[in-house]
Structures are given as C-alpha cells and as structure tokens.
Design goal:
Blueprint: H1 22-36, E1 43-47, H2 55-58, E2 62-65, H3 71-81, E3 86-92, H4 93-99, H5 101-109, E4 115-120, E5 123-124, E6 130-131, H6 155-161, E7 166-171, H7 175-187, E8 192-197, H8 209-215, E9 216-218, H9 229-236, E10 242-249, H10 278-282
Parallel strand pairs: 1-2, 1-3, 3-4, 4-8, 7-8, 9-10
Antiparallel strand pairs: 5-6, 7-10
Helix pairs in contact: 1-7, 4-5, 6-9
C-alpha cells in the first residue's frame, strides 16, 4: 500500500471553471474507488488532452497523460502488459469521437478490458468552445459562426454497433447515479464505455444543469432491459428525452482472456527468455 493511499485527491486544487461538470465526475470517480476499495497500485488511469485531462493533476492515482485522441490504445497496452490492473480512461468527446474514433472502434470490437469514461459537453471547451464531433447540427460556435453543418456523432450508437459489451450514459449533475454506473462499468470484464452528459457553463450556455434535469430519465425506472443490441441502438437514438443508465451489457471473453500466453500469468511476470523467437528471427535472415 502506498503512503496516503486512502486519499482520493492530491494537494493540487482543480482549475476548472465554477460549475463545470468535471467536479461531479471527479466526485463520482472518488466515490466509486471508495466503494470498490481500489488502491492506487491496483488501478491505472490514462488521461486524454483537454479539460478532462486536467484531472491527472487532481486525482490521487497512478496515471498516464496521453496525446490527444491516443488515450485508448495506451490503456489497451497497459491492460495487455498487466491484466491484473483495472484500467480507466478519462477522455473528452473530441479525443474519443474525433481524433481517437478509429481507436474506439478497434478497441471496442476487440472487447479489450478497459473502462472508457467520456466527458461529453458537446464542444472543445479547453480551446474556447469550438465545435466538437458531438455538437448538434446548427449550433453556432467560434469555429462554426453560421451554425454546424454536419450531423453529430452518436457516441452510444457508435459503441453499440461496434460490439462494445457494456455501454452506459450518466449525468455529471447526479453523482450518486453516476457513481453506480461507473462502479458497474469498472466491474465489467471487457470493453465498457460510460458517456457522461457534462454541463459546460462557460461555453455551452444552452444546456445548463436545469436543461438536463428536464430532459433526462433513468432507464432503470422503466421496463427496459439492456440485453438486446438492436433495441439498445434504437434507445440511443432518442433525442426529445435523453435516457441515462445502462443501454447494453453482454458477458463475453475479454481480449486478453483469449490470448494463450496470458492465461497462466501476466505479461510483466513472464520471462522473455522462455519465449522461443527462433522462428520469428528466421524471417529476417
């Protein structure tokens, strides 16, 4: 156990704007870690660039600050190197559904055992509110002064279609519910994506906390069951009212569980001297 491992935050104070949804997300992460009794040495957190990536300075846990859009492959590599670790990725809607969308597709369909927590505020807010992949059509931003011309990415539908085995959506303004969803995602064996609706009071004034509270409803309070991929896709298309909760869940072997060399021990505990490389070396002669 590391010194002060019962702490969940560092001595560095968050620098987010007042009212930012990141505060609620950080609170849910700390609560989930407490609930699961996760120590820093048991968890690897990979951060993307952006307001969400600043969490690397505030969260008391082992972390890696990746390049923009490249957090997911780093997380998958960490999991393959030591599959005893839980691996959490903190990424914004730009890094995950824009620059990193190819990684999302590949890692989801491979069912890599990582949890992807996306901060979805529908903008590139760190760079003063430009259009992001999830910005609704017609919205005016500094980069789309006449309104966004293209349709937004559907994060949930994208993950569901590409064979993700756990897909959920939460709201940064409901920390207890978000904590429950994150705990379920971290406990899932396989690829888990939790998309978080995040208010940005500085640049996205059209969607304050009250707007979300008037437009969201909880799936668990309906008769919906998250076991049908086609119904989950249909549910992800709802726009007038925004469902939050678990959209789809399926138990399948994770990527690392299907690799014969990882069935007996983690990669970091295997000696390279025991691996016969002669056949591979012959290819280079």
């Amino acid at each position: 156990m590391l010194p002060n491992s019962n702490k969940r935050t560092t001595s560095v104070n968050p620098t987010w704007c007042p009212g930012c949804g990141n505060f609620g997300i950080l609170g849910a992460i700390k609560a989930s870690f407490d609930e699961l009794k996760i120590e820093p040495q048991q968890m690897a957190v990979v951060y993307d660039i952006g307001c969400s990536g600043n969490m690397a300075d505030f969260a008391y846990a082992y972390g890696f600050h990746a390049l923009h859009g490249r957090a997911l492959p780093v997380a998958a590599g960490i999991k393959l190197a030591n599959h005893d670790l839980r691996v959490l990725t903190i990424v914004g809607d730009g890094g995950c559904f824009g620059e990193g969308v190819g990684h999302l597709v590949g890692i989801a369909k491979g069912n890599h055992d990582i949890t992807v927590l996306t901060h979805n505020n529908f903008l590139y807010s760190l760079t003063t509110g430009q259009k992001s992949p999830t910005t609704p059509k017609g919205v005016k931003t500094p980069s789309t002064p006449e309104g966004s011309l293209d349709e937004p990415v559907n994060p949930l539908g994208l993950a569901i279609i590409n064979q993700a085995t756990f897909v959920a959506r939460g709201f940064a303004g409901d920390i207890p519910h978000l904590t429950k969803l994150l705990t379920a995602a971290l406990n899932h064996r396989g690829f888990a994506m939790l998309d978080v609706l995040q208010p940005c009071p500085t640049y996205n004034k059209d969607r304050p906390y009250n707007w979300y509270r008037e437009h969201i409803y909880k799936l668990e309070e309906t008769d919906y069951q998250p076991t049908d991929r086609l119904k989950a896709i249909e549910k992800s298309m709802e726009q007038d009212k925004l469902p939050i909760g678990i959209f789809f869940k399926q138990d399948l072997p994770a990527y690392h569980q299907q690799i014969s060399t990882l069935k007996t021990a983690t990669l970091i505990n295997q000696s390279s001297g025991k691996i016969d490389l002669s056949a591979a070396l012959r290819e280079f002669k």
